[in-house]
Amino acid sequence: MPVDIYWRIHMEGDQPSLRRRVRSRGGFAPGGTAPGTRDGRDDGYTHADYMAEVARAAEESGFVGGLLPNFPHTDDPWAAAATLARETTSYRFMVAFQPGFLHPVQAARMTATLQRATGGRIVYNVISGGGGPAQLWWGDKVDHDDRYARTSEFLDVLKGVWQGGHTHHGRFYQVEDAGLPEELAGQPFPEIFFSGSSPAAIDAAGRHADYYLSWLEPFEALAEKFDAVRAHSATPPRFAVRVDLLARESEEEAWEEIRQGWQARPRGGDSGGGSGGGDSVGVRRSRSFLAEAGDDPRALEVAPNVWGGFGQLRDGPAFGLVGDYHQVAERLDQFLDLGVDAFILAGIPHLEEARRVGRHVLPLLKGRTS
């Protein structure tokens, strides 16, 4: 079966490299600067222009689409997908969203509108939140396991509305004879990439996921997680992994990039997965695999080419792959042998690394990409 490979879009803004943890390309988080700022003035080149460059580069480099992540400090991914649709032709938009902040009837209407406008290029990344301050920012105080119960009910209602004439009286949602207008009905329903590492998440994924999506973890841990999902699924989903890559022509060159970033990193920063204070099981799992590296970043290499220090050099998950082009491709092939059917890849900066990975790494995979 062909493997779908996506390239992440930097909704939060982009760094110039892993050696400099500053956002100099787009985004509007504190400290971010628009790409077109010159002498303190906007020259008209916007964050949307830069995202479009990355999307076009990813499409030209062989990626099937991109993940548009969703945080309080980013543009809205639904609106971004609409903005970028005309910049590409086959590129799929994996829209990340939290069901708790959207009514399923409105989600169905928005999705069908985008499906009609893009020729069916919308994909869902359903997330249920990591708790803590970020969750409260959205005004959501629902407990961890109840968030997944709400997500599951949301998807039941959304799928019912998509079919038309749907009535539902549940714990979180009430709808009467809900459906899409005739002009929007009949569009393909998006594939669902479902995230979450807790038992509640895995149970919900077993009901709804087309793809169970996990951050990269050590191979054995990832295999155990996939087995747990299979055990909770009447029809097991396919599997996808979100992976950062640092691939260079030689292994020494790749690790030198890490070494320079390690020396320049802000001390005491997050070790990966986002800010503390949440109840994310995925973040706790990532941190449990890591030992104190001290001044030696190679101490965070938990398996050949699997490095757990990315969270110190940029925002996001801890683990990624570091090595020469052939080594990185070999590790990705190992994930395929583990049962992975799709990847969401990323690299800093997103524009140049999309072209590099597309040119040097994707052709080395064993001919299984879409």
Summarize the helices and strands and which ones pair or pack.
Elements: E1 4-7, E2 37-38, E3 41-42, H1 47-60, E4 65-68, H2 77-84, E5 92-97, H3 104-118, E6 122-126, H4 132-137, H5 144-163, E7 166-169, E8 174-178, E9 192-195, H6 199-208, E10 211-215, H7 219-231, E11 238-248, H8 251-264, H9 281-288, E12 301-303, E13 306-307, H10 310-313, E14 320-324, H11 325-338, E15 340-346, H12 350-360
Helix pairs in contact: 1-12, 3-5, 5-6, 6-7
Quick tags:
370 residues; alpha/beta; 11-stranded mixed β-sheet; two-stranded antiparallel ribbon; 12 helices; 15 strands; 37% helix; 19% strand; SsuD_RutA_monooxygenase; flavoprotein; Luciferase-like_dom; monooxygenase; Luciferase-like_sf
Q: What features would you describe in this structure?
A:
With 370 residues, the protein is of the alpha/beta class. The chain has helices spanning 47-60, 77-84, 104-118, 132-137, 144-163, 199-208, 219-231, 251-264, 281-288, 310-313, 325-338, 350-360; strands at residues 4-7, 37-38, 41-42, 65-68, 92-97, 122-126, 166-169, 174-178, 192-195, 211-215, 238-248, 301-303, 306-307, 320-324, 340-346. The strands form three sheets. Strands 1, 4, 5, 6, 9, 10, 11, 12, 13, 14 and 15 form an eleven-stranded mixed β-sheet that branches. A two-stranded antiparallel ribbon has the order 2-3. Strands 7-8 form a two-stranded antiparallel ribbon. Helix 6 (199-208) links the parallel strand 9 and strand 10. Helix 5 (144-163) runs parallel beside helix 6. The protein is globular. The N and C termini lie close together (9 Å).
